[in-house]
Every structure is written in C-alpha cells, then in structure tokens.
Amino acid sequence: MRATPILFLFTALISAGFGQTYTSAADIQKLIANAKKIRKGDQPTVSLPILKLAPYQPNLEYRAAVGPASIHEKEAEMFYVIDGAGTLVTGGKLVDERRTNASNLTGTAIEGGQSQAVSKGDFFIVPEKTPHWFSEIKGTLILMSFHIPRSE
Questions:
Q1: What does the pLDDT average to over 22-40?
Q2: Based on CB atoms within 10 Å of each CB, which residue in 44, 51, 89, 148 is the most buried?
Q3: pTM, to two decimals
Q4: What tens digit of pLDDT does each residue of 3-14 get?
Q5: By C-alpha distance, which of 79, 81, 103 is closest to 90?
Q6: Which residues pair with 63 in a beta bridge?
C-alpha cells in the first residue's frame, strides 16, 4: 500500500497528541486497573480517556459507588457496559439541581424516572436534556461513555 499525504498528516497529528484512534483490549484492562488504583476513598467515579479525536473522546468510567445524577443539555450520552451491573434511572427530575457549567446540570438523585437494570454487554443511549443517574452499583460498574454533540 502506498502512503499518501493524508496518511502522513493523520499519523503526524496522532504523534503530536491530537488524537488516539485505537485502544486494545489489553489497554482497556490496564485502564481499569489504573482507575481502581487512583480512586480515592469513597470517590464514586473515576473517568479516564479511552480514545481521543477532537471533538470526540470516549471515556472509561469506573463506578464503585452511587454518584450524582446529570443532565447534558447539548449532548446525548451513549454507554456500553464493559463489566459489572447496576441500575440506570432516566427521566424524572433532578433532586437538589444545580448548574455545573453552561450546558450541564447535576443533582443528588432523581425523583420519578424509569429504572432499568444494566449489566455486562448492554448498550444504551441517553438523549440530551434527559436526567440520568446510576441509582445502584452492584460491586463495580465499568462503562464506556461517549458524549455525542447534537445539533440545535
């Protein structure tokens, strides 16, 4: 196969830290071990990048305890359960809602909403502007999360 200028540019951008387009299963296991190692006390979630190619960045989420609920006003969020199990609540209303930045809200829990058991191998997507919260973590819940910008 003949190298093209585009391939050279792409390789240079990745080498310069502008992207990472591949992570192996062994690398994922290392990320999981690292997340477990760097988790502090009762910290509910450790998030580490799996891949990087602006504006996209799938993350590994190592969840060892129930954390805050969220709303992303301008992004949908897709999840894949790498390992573990828990309960996802979507919809309803944030409890003790507060703004974290220009396009995200957080709360201590969700009132109402729909509960769904999730476990290893499951995929799901949370539309933008939808409250979501992992109300139960069974041991640990290890996810791939991916924020998807939505047009307005």
A1: 96
A2: 89
A3: 0.85
A4: 555 544 445 444
A5: 79
A6: 45, 141
